[in-house]
Design brief:
Blueprint: H1 4-8, H2 12-18, H3 22-28, H4 41-46, H5 50-55, H6 60-77, E1 87-91, E2 106-109, E3 113-117, H7 124-132, E4 144-147, H8 154-158, E5 165-168, H9 180-190, H10 196-210, H11 226-239, E6 245-249, H12 258-267, E7 271-275, H13 279-284, E8 287-292, E9 295-301, H14 304-328, H15 335-338
Parallel strand pairs: 3-7, 3-8, 5-6, 6-7
Antiparallel strand pairs: 1-2, 1-4, 8-9
Helix pairs in contact: 9-10, 10-11, 11-12
Length: about 350
């Protein structure tokens, strides 16, 4: 993020080129920069006469601080504030009975898939919530979540512009009266995407690869099925969202190609944490967190034997998918041929 010293070294042209939204900020504050684009910011501010400063209520020193704060907010909103990889560390909290969780610490790096398994009501969603809120010993589990080795302050945790975590929940319903294209255009515009048309088509094509049934750019988002909605949001999260951490709560019932969905998210170097009851998804993770009695009971790596089992389960899953599609389109199954 820029400092006041770095800001002083930029010409107006360089400032607008590096932070395009700063131009609107200067216009809104009536800073007279036209014809002075080759001057550095301080030189432009020095040209403001007292009468103009008084008429427009310009406090030069305060303006520079506000400009820095605005740029930092925009960088945070656009997810461009830090290009380094993200690392999440979860420190132990407590089980429902008050005893300490049975592990020392868990560190997760970009590109890793971590699956969260356990009985219904065991605490899987609570763990996802702790990560989403960057818990700091202040949630029911009293866990602590570190981002790149540090706890987040209150402003970072609860700011509406903090896009550290994207979450895909079990229940997803659109309420806006927009087509798929209009929805993606709105999101891309809010992200100040330059090649908006290309990004929209890329998300649309990926979503249709994941969805069990195809949809069009002109389809109203309120008409999408649960699987199509989930496919659209996964593609949107992978391609357009800058959030480095993706939390998924039970993707198995969404009616989408689960393997392609995970491959898409990991290809964008995101950390994926996924609560699941599906054995295929559970074995696709690099690690599994086993939850019981409200806490983390153990953390296990996926073994070579389990990977061999996974390949057989995937083969069975493809057979099931083929059968489902044949039945969906009115065909009949022949047992010997299908198995």
């Amino acid at each position: 993020m820029p400092s006041i010293k770095q800001l002083k070294e930029l010409t107006i042209n360089e400032l607008f080129d590096k932070y395009p939204y700063s131009k609107d900020f200067m216009l809104d504050h009536h800073i007279p920069f036209e014809g002075k684009e080759n001057l550095i910011v301080d030189e432009v501010l020095d040209t403001i006469d007292e009468e103009h400063a008084e008429d427009q209520a310009i406090d030069v020193e305060k303006f520079k601080e506000q400009l820095i704060e605005y740029i930092n907010l925009m960088l945070s909103f656009l997810g461009e504030e830090d290009e380094s990889q993200t690392e999440v560390t979860i420190l132990p909290g407590f089980y429902k009975d008050g005893s300490r969780e049975n592990y020392d610490r868990l560190t997760i790096k970009s590109g890793e898939i971590i699956c969260i398994v356990g009985p219904t009501g065991s605490g899987k969603s609570r763990l996802l919530a702790d990560i989403e809120w960057a818990a700091n010993y202040d949630t029911p589990t009293k866990r602590t979540v570190l981002i790149n080795g540090n706890t987040l302050d209150t402003k970072e945790r609860f700011s509406s512009s903090n896009k550290l975590v994207a979450q895909l929940s079990q229940n997803m319903n659109f309420v806006m009266d927009l087509t798929v294209e209009e929805f993606l255009d709105l999101h891309a515009t809010s992200r100040l995407v330059e090649n908006k048309e290309d990004v929209i088509i890329s998300i649309f094509n990926k979503a249709n690869e994941l969805a069990g049934e195809q949809f069009k750019l002109t389809t109203p988002i309120t008409s999408l099925s649960g699987g199509q909605s989930r496919a659209l949001m996964i593609a949107d999260t992978a391609i357009l969202s800058k959030s480095p951490i993706v939390l998924i709560d039970e993707i198995e019932n969404a009616g989408i190609d689960r393997e392609k969905a995970l491959d898409l998210l990991v290809s964008e170097d995101k950390i994926v944490l996924m609560a699941t009851h599906d054995p295929i998804l559970a074995l696709m993770g690099d690690k599994r967190i086993i939850i019981n009695n409200g806490g983390i009971e153990k953390i296990v790596d996926t073994t070579e034997d389990e990977l061999n089992i996974l390949s057989k389960l995937k083969r069975l899953d493809r057979i099931m998918l083929t059968m489902r599609n044949k039945l969906r389109y009115g065909e009949q199954l022949e047992f010997e041929e299908e198995i």
